[in-house]
């Protein structure tokens, strides 16, 4: 033991850093694999509906959800293993310095020499994201057209999938490249306090993106329409007014053209709040509940809506209960608290980056002996050096999120929505084939929402009151 300790201390600092990063990465992967194995064992062995679930889940739905989650977990194991091996090979084979050198050659041919580090950084970023998109494509295809298709969730055609993937890549680059170039420029000219300016810049960018996402970015991928005038819209506006939520618009997004999973969210700042409901959440609006008209061949060439025997989505009262929960996050300050935590973390990370960026050993550990590019420094420090801190923070935020979810459920109860939220949670669990039984360690580590039974028990107590 002492001998191995001596050998470790005799290694150059850069080799110790590299080995530590690699070992920690595999330690995290093995921990995640262990947790996933425990959960898969639950999927395999829990083949009958537990007694406490008998009143809320039939055996057919229980079996469907069990098989769906088992397939997803198995897929996650293999895709996770591939990702870990790929990342390890990139590090061991010097993939990062190789790509940086290639980026320099490409930018050089375009007339930008080594002094144009930001240009080279953008080429590097473009190539890195392109590589990630290409290597991840087979896994995404399998997940969509094998697993999701097999279990009745996929609504996409192959053509729609590729069109969507290309659009996502282009939109991502249109945002990522300008933002990165400005961030690198700020770091370059910011002097000793560049970390403050960099943090303020990322704060402004994040707030702008949150503000414009649903109005300008999301509609590039999905169709957003105002919720038609009627009873549901009137009830939503009344509920929002009762809690002083400054609602300006309610949208329905056509999520059914890509998946039958459902969702709802709100966005906006100050007096300009908007609510977005997926059509799959609304029993009266979901395209999946509608029979195609005579002579119509589905929706169009891009999508293939599949009519189901059972209606999907929630009734108006249940939709209001779900929104009561979501608005509870706003009323109880959860949104603001999450933003504050996120920005405190961001400031801390930029401050530590400023402290560490001058350490040449960090660059040498990943094959950069002669140059210390700022973008590479950001990647090394934020992605690798901070990884232990990020794991701890992620777990703490998961615990906090579960606490917030219970509080939002309690807020919906105070609005008199306990009974409707109870039935809505059961419906949403069935529609999304959520498996209601989980391993306690897996649940503790991964679930940002409390297990279904725990939420239902809390609501059941309120109903009985």
UniProtKB/TrEMBL annotation:
Localization in the cell: Endoplasmic reticulum membrane
Protease listed as a keyword: yes
Domain CAAX prenyl protease 1 N-terminal: 39-223
Region (Disordered): 291-311
Entry's cofactor comment: Binds 1 zinc ion per subunit.
Keyword vocabulary terms for this entry: Endoplasmic reticulum, Hydrolase, Membrane, Metal-binding, Metalloprotease, Protease, Transmembrane, Transmembrane helix, Zinc
One cellular-component annotation, GO: endoplasmic reticulum membrane
Active site: 326, 409 (proton donor)
EC number(s) from the headed UniProt entry: 3.4.24.84
Cofactor(s) needed for function: Zn(2+)
Transmembrane regions listed in the UniProt entry: 15-35, 75-98, 118-142, 169-187, 193-214, 347-369, 375-400
Pfam families linked: Peptidase_M48 (PF01435), Peptidase_M48_N (PF16491)
BP GO terms, sorted: CAAX-box protein processing
Taxonomic source organism: Lonchura striata
InterPro entries for the chain: CAXX_Prtase_1, Peptidase_M48, Peptidase_M48_N
Recorded catalytic activity of this chain's protein: Hydrolyzes the peptide bond -P2-(S-farnesyl or geranylgeranyl)C-P1'-P2'-P3'-COOH where P1' and P2' are amino acids with aliphatic side chains and P3' is any C-terminal residue
Record-level Gene Ontology MF annotations: metal ion binding; metalloendopeptidase activity
Coiled coil: none
Function: Proteolytically removes the C-terminal three residues of farnesylated proteins.
Protein name: CAAX prenyl protease
Family per record: Belongs to the peptidase M48A family.
Enzyme class, broadest EC rank: hydrolase
Amino acids binding Zn(2+): 325, 329, 405
Topology class, membrane: Multi-pass membrane protein
